[in-house]
Amino acid sequence: MKVSVIMPAYNAARYIEQSIRSVIAQTFTDWELLVIDDCSDDETAGIADRLASADDRIKVIRREQNCGVAQNRNFGVTTAQGEWIAFLDSDDLWNKDKLKKQVELIKKHPDAEISYTASTFIDEDGKAYPCVMHAKPMLTYNELLHRNLMSCSSVMVKRDMMLRFPMENDEMHEDYVSWLRILREVPCAYGLDEPMLTYRLSKASKSGNRVRSGKMIYRSYRCVGYGVIRSAWLTLRYIPYSVKKRKRILESRN
Q: Does residue 254 surpass a pLDDT of 80?
């Protein structure tokens, strides 16, 4: 079973080598890594090229114009050779057994179309927060609608599903929209409650700005078909969870 790992990258020179090496270190070895360089003007592509020259499972693709993370993930999916897709952002890290354990989980559930794992967190300097975002064994659409438990860099999903439900634009939580659309079609996402992903919290990230994030959540609900009032109500219900989650992570060092 081949897994295609999609890594969009833009000016990611500070972290991308760590992220790529966390893929190279995987105990599951039947993977390809597609690094989609989005017209970086730093050393991102050069670092990726150097690592690719030592491992032919790594392919570096340079876009001709800046497209944004959603479109680069979609482009990676269309280019991928694997039956399954795993996403990894260029500043996040995987546990060495991430793919192995997720493949084992999928094999236990022949009906699986999508899965995810628990996550831990680090700051921009790599210092850990002693906090875990847990994964439910089976996550349904209604549960996901209330709060997004599925970190994109933890997800493994069938390529056919991503071709049917590509990510939308970067003005919303594009991955969340895809997960909601998929879970309308399938009974659940299977979760592995082990922290196989280390997610890097960044002040510059889309979710780091709470006002912007709230607007993006609202647009996400609108995109999956909810009306203005329903979307506003869902957003108002979602925001306290989002704020509480980030506060819990940041205060876990105290």
A: no
DSSP label of 165: S
Q: Which amino acid is at 10?
A: Y
Instruction: Dig out the tokens for 41 from the structure.
Output: 């003007």
Residue at token pair 């438990």: 149
- For position 169, what pLDDT does the model report? 87
Q: What is the pLDDT of residues 77-123, one digit of tens each?
A: 999 999 999 999 999 999 999 999 999 999 999 999 999 999 999 99
Instruction: Identify whether the C-beta of residue 123 lies closer than 8 Å to the C-beta of residue 91.
Output: no
Per residue in 57-82, pLDDT tens? 999 999 999 999 999 999 999 999 99
Residue 197, SS3?
strand
- The closest alpha carbon to 161, from 55, 60, 217, 77, belongs to 77
Give the 3-state secondary structure of residue 204: coil
3 state DSSP class of 56: coil
Token pair 């967190």 in the structure block, residue: 121
Whether the predicted pLDDT of 209 surpasses 70: no
Nearby residues of 187 by Cβ (< 8 Å), 6 or more positions away? 111, 138, 140
Encoding tokens for residue 58?
């790594």
Tokens 């700005």, residue located: 209
Mapping DSSP onto H, E and C, the string for 210-251 reads HHHHHHHHHHHHHHCCCCHHHHHHHHHHHHHHHHHHHHHHHH
Interacting residues of 13 by C-beta distance below 8 A, sequence separation 6+: 40, 42, 43, 44, 47
Closest of 166, 164, 156, 225 to residue 189, by C-alpha:
156
Specify the pTM.
0.95
